[in-house]
Amino acid sequence: MANATSERAEQQAVEDFFAALPHAAALGLVVEKMENGEAVISMPWAAKLVGDPATGVVHGGSVSALMDTCCGGAVMSHQQAGGATATLGLRIDYMRPATPGQTIRAEATCHHVTRTVAFVRAVAVDDDTARPVATATGTFTVSAA
Question: Rounded CA gap, 86 and 88, in Å?
Answer without folding.
Answer: 6
